[in-house]
Every structure is written in C-alpha cells, then in structure tokens.
Amino acid sequence: MADPQDSKVDESTSPVGVLSPFDRLHPADETLSENERQFIRRLHTMGNINKIDPNGLPKLQKAFRDANWVERPSDPYYVSATYYGLTGRRGLWSYTNDNAGFLFCLHPNREDHLLIFPPFGKKTKETLARFVHSLRDLPITIDLARNNSNRDLGDTRKKGSFHFESIEEDALDWRYPVRTAGITDLMNREGKAFSKIRGAMNKWERRNDISITKLDLSKLTDYNRALSLASFWEAGSNGAYDVQDDYFSTLVALGHEGHANLSGIIVSVGKKPVSVAIWEAPPTEDKIANIFASQALKGDIRIDAPKTGGPSEEVSLTNINTYLIVKAAEIAQEEDGAEFICLGGSETAGMDDYKAGFGTVEDFSPQLTTHRVIWDNSMDGGPS
Hints:
- By secondary structure, the chain is an alpha+beta fold.
- It is built from 12 helices and 16 strands.
- Helix 3 crosses helix 4 and helix 8 (about 195-205) crosses helix 11.
C-alpha cells in the first residue's frame, strides 16, 4: 500500500460532495428510513422549525457568543456550533418560540432515533413538552441528550402524556464525564498527577526525528491529506485503528468550507505520519478549545535508515497520542488564545481514566445524562 505522504494530490478534486451528509435530508432520499422520512415530513407541517445546514453554523455560533447567559453552561459543547454540526450530520434543526428554544437532530449512528439537546429560555419545560407531544404518533425513539444531571426536567405528564426516564448512554460519548484540562497545567506538568504526561513528553521530545506539521484545512492539499491519512491508517491497521469515516470527513469538510474555525496538526516520526489532531478555536469568551479528533497509529513502526547509512529502527508508538494532545493544546493557547482544552466525554472507563490524566477543570467537566421519552399511554400517544 502506498504511503499517503508519497501520493499525488489532485488539486482539481472538489471536496464539496463530502458535505452531502447535510444534504441527505430530502424526504425521498434513500439513505433515510421510512420512519425518518415521515418524521421530516411532520416537521414541514410544524411552525417554529428551522433546518440548520453547514452555512448556518457560523450564525448559530454568533448567537451562542452574543447570548445573555444567566449562568454560563458547564458543558463546552453546549455552545459549540461545530459540535452540533458534527452530531447532527444526518439532519439538524432548531425549534424556537417567544419563550424558549432548543436544537435537535437525527441520531448520527442509529436509525429512527431523535436527539433533543437541552433547551434554553424562560419556559423550557412547557416548550419541550409541547414539541415532544407533537411527535407522539411517530415510531421513533426520542432522547434528551447531554442533559446536565442537575437539570430539573419538570413534570411533563400534565402536558404531553409522557415522562423522561434516565437511561445509561451506550452509543455516544457522555457515558462518562466531559473532561476539560487547563493548558497552562499541561505545559508545566508539575506534581504527581502529571507524572504520566511528563513521561510521555520526555520520551518523544528526546527524539530528534519527531516533527509537527500544521494543517490548514482551507487548503485543498491539507484537506485531502487529512482524509487520506485517516483512510490509509484504517486500511492498514487490521482493525487496530478505528475511525468513523462519516464523522471525520464531515469534520474536515466543515473546516475546509469555512463553516467551523478549525486547526490541526500532523505528528510524524522519521517523516512517517503517525497521528493527527483537529480542534476548534475557542467559540465563546470562555477560552475553551474543543478537540474533535485525535487519531494515532497503534503498535510499532519501522523508521528507515538515515542517509548516513545507519540501521533502520523499530519505534513503539506508545503514548504518541498523549504527545499529540499536549502539543495541540500548546498551539491552541499560542495561536487561538485558549486557556482550556476540552477532550469531550468517553464511552468506556478506560478512556475516561486516560482523559482524566490530563487534569480536570471541574467547572467545565460535567457529568451528563440521557433521558428517554416514555409514553404513559400507548393508546393515546407514541410507541410504548
């Protein structure tokens, strides 16, 4: 298999088609299930609904920045239009009225499944209940996603013949807490809590053949390189490297088209690309950068002999992802003014332990929950 760094880039290739996940929302599109088509047709009959495509993400981000928050959200992704664009790549909408509003989307990984994100405004409980009840006859699963565990959902039984029931999240990344780290702490790496970080950084910074290349996703060459690296690593990993193609391709397309303010780096060892990170510059005044991709090869690689004629070397890539994340954080601070970096939540305990090792800023590291709509009367409402 040819190394992607040696391949020719077709400068004439247009990446616009990669944004097609956002354009697949026509009810007749074969990528949607019949139930999803029915759901979208229902939206067309309702008021106060707006479809959000990639072009609308900057406007959504401005609304988050300009909002007069009574209390700053603790979840960094709650105010990130990029996050909603990624998670809602199969379809993203907003519902707003004079009292409240919220965003909702088709589940990125499951059919016939709707995610509603926590509402904002004055009468959020009533607004949410009214919207959910309007879908009562549709055979779809409805979840309130990324709900702060302290949020009062209120009594919806009086409003819509349903209630919310807390469930264990088993598909998306908030089963375990969001982890946000302080960048200055990562750079200083002082104390026992950062001993593993120090060890990883010392290992890689001692090498004179490690290099960092910045990605400018607005350039077609960098856009194509990021995509080719992901597909190359996945194809050659025998299952050890796991990348969500739809997620990653949507992410880099958002950056290329200017719909999201993204930066990235590629880390190479002996001129071989081994890891890539892509993050969002702080979208609000909270100065939190959000990492949306940090992918690294696993196992060992063989580094070719230098021109001096020495032997080739087998290099273990253990902890290369740690080096990648710390370097991304440093660049985000230097170039974007970030003070914190959000690593997101986790689906497994092991991944949560790993992310916690970067340090945790409690104010921006909430435990989130998923609450499912349970219909109280299947004869009167939706699926039981």
